[in-house]
Structure formats: structure tokens, C-alpha cells
Design a protein that fits this description.
The protein has about 200 residues and is an alpha/beta fold. It has a single domain, classed as Maf protein, CATH 3.90.950.10. Helices cover about 35% and strands about 25% of the residues. It contains five helices and seven strands, in the order βαβαβαββββαα. β6 and β7 form a beta hairpin. The longest helix has 21 residues. The chain starts with a strand and ends with a helix. Bound molecules: inosinic acid. Inosinic acid (IMP) binds next to β3. Inosinic acid binds next to β3.
Length: about 200
């Protein structure tokens, strides 16, 4: 079976391919099937945004399509930046600008709890849907640490590992991250679904 990944990000393709190759599923990017779909992420939840992206690509290509949506939710900010994680503070900010804004907005705040969330949705042309969610709880550091990763990684601290996401190797991060958890849950759900329709 061929699955179209609703993304232009080759890094996400590698992750998805690695986990789904074991199920005999081939994952390709939109551009590999001649599609270039712009989807407005207007959903109020990660689940909704993943669904909107996957459905749009499935409808354009006529093939099963999978999408993910993720972000950082901070307790003391009532769940912000949440679904706005990629756009926090407006389009002029880069990754560093966004995490510095987050630190500013938490200045003096002792409750530093937060979590990363990742939701994956796969839409099939017959209307079926397979979904998975992963979370990774942690705290927001007082200052950035580490060079690896992307986005909010330098300020997302894992108390049990005494390191930020940016201080972990890719393998270490994948073992605990919201995306790793969601991808493994998705693999299980997709396998159940495919076994069900082949019975
Ligand atoms: P998406 O590509 O629409 O899912 O946007 C996710 C946004 O959330 C990214 O632009 C990052 O700002 C943030 N984000 C999601 N996952 C991570 C992560 O693993 N590390 C750091 N930031 C992340």
C-alpha cells in the first residue's frame, strides 16, 4: 500500500518511512505524486489540524494520506502556544525568537510544567480514519541549553534525564518524544486496521 505524507518536510518522511516499512507500507511525499496542497491549519486542536491536512491531500490525490500536527502546551499559559506553536509571536520570529518569547511570558512563573503533543491522522478514500496521539511531559527551563533539535527543544527540560530536548541525541529524543510515542501508537493502530480489512 502507498501512503502520501501530507508534508513537504523530507525529515518527517524519513521518520514515517522507518516506522511503516515494517508493515509493508510505502510512504511518499506529496510532490512524489504531483501534488502540492496548501491547507490552512484552522483547527482548534492538534487532532483537527492533522485531520484537515490528511483529508485535503487524500481528496487531491485519491490516495490514503497521513498528516501530523504537533506543538508545545504550557500549563501556566493555559495550554499556549498549543496549536499556534509554529506561529507563536507572529511570522517575523524564528525558532529562537519564539522560545525567547515563551521564556519572557513565563518570567517570574514558578509553575514551569508543560508537554509536547503530537497527533497523527491517516484518511482513506473510503472515509475510514486511523489516528494516534503521543505526549511527552516536561518543564520549561529558565534559560536555553543544548545545540541539537529544533523549535522549542533548547527550553524543553526533561527532569528524569536532567537534559533539555536539545541535549539529547536523535535516538534518545525519539525514545521519549511525543512524536516517537505517536508514531509507535500509529504503527500499532494502522497494523490493526490493515489486518482488519484483509481478514
Ligand atoms: P507542525 O509542523 O505544524 O506540527 O508545527 C509544530 C511546531 O511545534 C514546530 O514548528 C515547533 O515550533 C513545535 N514543535 C513540535 N515538535 C517539536 C519538537 O520535537 N521540538 C521542538 N519544537 C517542536
Amino acid at each position: 500500500m502507498k501512503l502520501v505524507l501530507a508534508s513537504k518536510n523530507p525529515h518527517k518522511l524519513t521518520e514515517m518511512q522507518a516506522i511503516l516499512a515494517q508493515l509493508g507500507v510505502e510512504v511518499v511525499l506529496e510532490r512524489d505524486v504531483g501534488a502540492d496542497v496548501e491547507v490552512e491549519e484552522t483547527g482548534a486542536t492538534f487532532e483537527e489540524n492533522a485531520f484537515l491536512k490528511a483529508r485535503a491531500v487524500m481528496e487531491t490525490t485519491g490516495l490514503p494520506a497521513v498528516a501530523d500536527d504537533s506543538g508545545l502546551c504550557v500549563d501556566a499559559l493555559n495550554g499556549a502556544p498549543g496549536v499556534y506553536s509554529a506561529r507563536y509571536g507572529g511570522p517575523e520570529l524564528d525558532d529562537e525568537g519564539r522560545y525567547r518569547l515563551l521564556l519572557d511570558n513565563l518570567r517570574g512563573q514558578l509553575d514551569r510544567r508543560g508537554k509536547f503533543v503530537s497527533c497523527i491522522c491517516c484518511c482513506f478514500p473510503n472515509g475510514d480514519r486511523v489516528e494516534a496521539r503521543g505526549e511527552c511531559p516536561g518543564t520549561i527551563a529558565y534559560a536555553p541549553r543544548g545545540e541539537g533539535g529544533f523549535g522549542y527543544d533548547p527550553v524543553f527540560f526533561l527532569p528524569q534525564m536532567k537534559k533539555t530536548f536539545a541535549q539529547l541525541t536523535a535516538e534518545e529524543k525519539n525514545a521519549v518524544s511525543h512524536r516517537g510515542v505517536a508514531l509507535r501508537a500509529f504503527q500499532t493502530e494502522l497494523e490493526k486496521y490493515l489486518n482488519g480489512i484483509n481478514e
